[in-house]
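Help! Submission page says 'invalid entity' but I think these are all valid:
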Amino acid sequence: MNNLIQVDKLDRIKEAASYIKSKLNNKPQVAIILGSGLGPFADQIENAVVIDYKDIPGFPVSTVEGHAGKLVCGTISGKNVLAMKGRFHYYEGYEISQVVFHIRVFKMLGINDILVTNAAGGINTEFTPGDLMLITDHISFFAPSPLRGANIDEFGPRFPDMCEAYSKKLISIAENVAWKLNINIKKGVYAFAQGPMFETPAEIRALRILGADAVGMSTVPEVITARHAGMRVLGISCITNMAAGILDQPLNHEEVMITAKNVENNFSTLVKSIIENWDI
Ligand code: HPA
């Protein structure tokens, strides 16, 4: 039984990968997942081939405002990239395996490096909205694992190691790039929250005690799946707001989108230069 489920899942992943491959002129070297409000970065990709998620067999369709639902493949800073404008969140109602479907499709396309970005609430009180944070590690005790169920041995082991979920080498490249560009970059631990409600102030205090610097509703399932498949990961959070209870004001999605828009230039400059210096 387990075997049958594995084969079916694997077939669907292969089918999506071969559809995407049939549209591409070059083999992508780095996959970039663009978080809430960060999608416009994809407009800078040259010689772009754009594929709608709805045309890719088995691909979910993202339903959130600020997530366009397009794959943009082309070149940037001399590297072949495949960017995702819009991702799938657990809170949208997908099974956790659907939330990470694209990661396995990317692996099947031969991509081994991935840059994940997101909008996040700042828990560390030294952060300010508009800051960019390199993710050094994550906390995700409270969420279902995307690896739950029959293991797909073709991708990785049943019990994968997560000691270096975010590549130290890539973090160091990104830090150097930020320093050269005079962009003040933060580093910290990202905590996964299932959403879609923002957290309570008590939850944020608890997460701070646990060691989290930022909180968001994405990224972690994707990173777990990528690491399971042996991919290298770099993660960047855009701190779009201070997390619940830090400031005396309610949270809303508009604030997230407005801050992400304000950071667009800095974010683009940084990501372009990171891609240029990426050690493929
Ligand atoms: N909490 C969870 N997710 C988020 C936040 C937040 O404060 N800001 C942006 N995404």
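Support: the input was valid. A stray whitespace character was the problem, and the output above is from the cleaned input. Residues 91 and 197 are 9 Å apart (CA to CA).
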